[in-house]
Amino acid sequence: MIGLLCFVLAVLASPFKSKLRLEAENAVLRHQLIVLRRRPRGRVRLTNHDRWFLIQLYRWFPSILKVLTIIRPETLVRWHRAGFRCYWRWKSRPQGGRPQIDTELRALIRRMSVENPLWGAPRIHGELLKLGFEVAQSSVAKYMVKRRGPPSQGWRTFLRNHAPDIAAMDLFVVPTIGFDLIYAFVIVRLDRRDIVWTNVTANPTAEWVAHQITEAFPWDGAPGYMIRDRDRIYGAVVTRRLRAMGIRDKPIAPASPWQNGFAERLIRSIRRECVDHIIVLGEAHLRRILKSYARYYNETRTHLALDKDAPVSRPVQRTGVVRSLAVLGGLHHHYARA
Questions:
Q1: What is the second-level CATH architecture of the domain 161-312?
Q2: pTM for this structure?
Q3: Where are the domains of the chain?
Q4: pLDDT, tens digit, for every residue of 265-292?
Q5: Of 2, 17, 113, 116, which is least surrounded by CB within 10 A?
């Protein structure tokens, strides 16, 4: 009864369907009858031609899903998607020409172009040839990083190229056991963060600071620029001494200690790792402590900014027994193989 009702409804709706749509549905019905007649017994067996026929009709007339009985609509949709993947896999097949470049080589080309913004495709191609990579220059140009503007170095590279000619100096106070204040003076180079000079005094003057600068740098090893704050201790005597040594004086802006960040960071390390854990007895005691810490800071202590190396580069030791050497009476330790 339900089948008869469905047939009547289909007959009533048939005048409103297009002629091509009706012919497609009739073709599907006839093909299903052919498949059923072809089956000797058991499960229906569909060939690739049957699947191709149904998929093509489904592409043109999706409404044929309503008249499919020997297979589920989900099965036909799955066949269509599988055919779509096979088609585009066939379209994307290699058709001769140059062999494809490995992913690692493409990544290396991009890395070289990023790390060397002033290099073009010929330069990178030459480097790859020296590394044993057989690749065309046009392929190198294809996989390079595309830039919107002209090539230019970054700020990190610019600062690294100028850091060897820049030094910074500053003063900080340390209380003694008698609650007196002793002034410590430090000079640091920005290139390797090494402490160039340390000294202490109870009564700092401009003449004393100028003398420390002279002692810190030989005449042929002075930096090109000296960063300092605007403390009154740096008087005309200091500026004349800097000018005489060929050092350009670079005072920071008023109330801007972050502009002398290297010296401020060094002083923070000295306080946190040294003088905050020691009761200073006097000038000689503090001078000896700072010299010991400066030697540890330059030759042993690793720095994150230097890729975990010391300012005076430490060799890697791979053989021998690890020994522990006390620094500052055991406040720190230096480990080496012997």
A1: 2-Layer Sandwich (3.30)
A2: 0.60
A3: 21-85, 103-145, 161-312
A4: 999 999 999 999 999 999 999 999 999 9
A5: 2
